[in-house]
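Our collaborator T.R. sent over the components below with a one-line note: 'Predict the complex.' Nothing else. No constraints on interfaces, no templates requested, no preferences about which chain binds where. So this is a plain run: every listed entity goes in together, and whatever single assembly comes back becomes the starting point for the next discussion.
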Amino acid sequence: MLGVQYPDGLDWLERRLDDIESGRAQLWQAGLGKFTSGWAIVTPKGNHDVKLSTMYVAPGARGQGVGRRMIEAISAEWHYRNIFSARVTFDEDDRVTRGFFEAVGFKPIPDSRRQYGARFDRAYLLDLSSPDLLPVATNKRRVPCEFALHRFKRFI
Ligand SMILES: CC(C)(COP(=O)(O)OP(=O)(O)OC[C@H]1O[C@@H](n2cnc3c(N)ncnc32)[C@H](O)[C@@H]1OP(=O)(O)O)[C@@H](O)C(=O)NCCC(=O)NCCS
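Returned assembly:
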């Protein structure tokens, strides 16, 4: 899938995994029961900005609030670390991913369209410059399951 959407997608993923191994990026993991249900890679960009390099919830775990809670947990850490903005890019025709990032507070960045073959990515920004802007926990769709979030690497 990654290799289809992005011509050099697998090389890109190798580089992000190297970043995690060397501590240049964080890997966040969400767990539902005994299973990993989602993960995200966060790459610092300077002292106050981060790139959400990727975020993925397993198809069988979607629509249960895992993605929202993962963003809430990660953004609480961003706030703690004085991160003022988080950026993410995704396929502009992916309505589900767009609906998700808009629902948790990301806004489209003007003039950020970038072409990959026949399709386009667009960049979105989460403004964290004030505590009021942090995504807030909702009690909607709390599924009867455990939720755990693990951080394997810290910012250097
Ligand atoms: C986008 C994604 C992370 C959402 O995860 P999720 O756990 O299913 O999302 P949640 O259940 O937490 O939903 C949170 C919000 O997103 C929105 N959302 C979720 N699924 C949606 C859908 N199918 N259509 C529209 N909006 C949707 C809703 O507004 C929802 O808000 P609510 O909780 O108030 O109802 C998941 O679908 C995914 O991994 N998709 C592939 C992502 C991808 O391509 N990543 C690479 C680029 S970063």
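Summary for T.R.: Residues 2-151 form a domain with the Aminopeptidase fold (CATH 3.40.630.30).
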